[in-house]
Amino acid sequence: MRVTSPLAVILTLFATFFWGSNFQATKIALDSLPPWTTSVERFAFAVLAIFIFLSLKGGIRSKVLRQNLPAFVILGTIGVAGFNGALFVGLQSSNPITAALIMATTPISANILEAIMNRRFPNSSRIFGMIISLFGVALVITNGQLFSEGSIHTTSGDLIIFAGSLGWAIYTVGTRTFITDATPLETTSWTMLFGTLILAIAAIFIESPLPSLLSGKPESHLASIYMGIAGSVFAYLFWNIGIATRGPGKTAIFFNFVPIFALGIQITLGDAPSPAQLIGITITIAGVLLGQGFFPTQFISKRLLIKE
Predict the structure, then answer these.
(1) Cα 255 from Cα 216, distance rounded (Å)
(2) Of the candidates 264, 243, 269, the residue with the CA atom closest to the CA atom of residue 254
(3) pLDDT in tens, 32-66
(4) Which of 36, 61, 227, 268 lies at a CB distance of 3.0 to 4.6 Å from 231, suitable for a disulfide?
């Protein structure tokens, strides 16, 4: 079936909803499971499900694997193991909505990375948008105490999650740039498999996965299964369909909806952010939209001239 651009947009939105819900699901899973073990359990379900789906859709093409093996391994390490390992470890000390908002800077990072690889210097609105969005993130992370001397408190988890967001930007651009003749389903399957193997190796060296899994609460396992099927298989597949259909730059912008969905879910659960954080959220989203060209710099300049 040929995927049209409107359908790709809808599927991409579903991907961002699933990822937005992952932040709260991760907190539930981490209640009784260590981070690396949780990541492995999540992606074990994901890999099993997606390879069953791949087999039903036409089987494994060894030529595609041989042709793209280095790219699959590297992108799986960065975009699956790196991104999700950073997220799970970071959420031990970071807040779900803060984590989601940090991830909101990913579209600008991806677009700048794509511009560099294509030897096109980012335009002024994109750079200005990144500065504004990072300022908004700083307000959220510090709970409005950005300029209060001696009062700023950030967690190591925030920095780890930011590193993960850069990894996701590399994955988004890399799947379109370095992989050839592979369908979105094949790209998702192979990068997820190799990323899961890296996560498993990390879990064995850092934690004790088997005893942890046996002692975990049922709700933690259910959260991992949800993240494995909806928050991994469907999310990655829909995301890669968007990249293949509309390109990495146009797809990356939809990552802006991840913190919006995460915020909506958090409010639904009765955990509303502070007023300062709401202001930071607004600034961040405005900066990201500016960086994506929603507010042309010509329009802003004209508005400023009128006021003057």
Answers:
(1) 31
(2) 243
(3) 999 889 989 999 999 999 899 888 877 888 999 99
(4) 227
φ/ψ of 13, rounded to 5, equals -65, -40
Six token digits for residue 30: 């981490």
Tokens for 209, please give them: 């996965």
**Tens digits of per-residue pLDDT, 223-275?**
999 999 998 889 888 988 888 888 876 787 777 777 778 877 877 877 777 78
Dist. CA 240–CA 243, nearest whole Å: 5
| Spatial distance between the Cα atoms of 150 and 136, rounded to a whole number of angstroms | 20
Interacting residues of 216 by C-beta distance below 8 A, sequence separation 6+: 32, 33
pTM equals 0.75
Beta strands in the chain (DSSP E): none
Secondary structure class of 273 (helix, strand, coil): coil
Q: How far apart are the first and last CA of the chain?
A: 55
270: left (phi over 0), alpha (psi -120 to 50) or beta: left
Both tokens of 141, joined, read 């992370």
Look-up: residue for tokens 């791949």?
Answer: 54
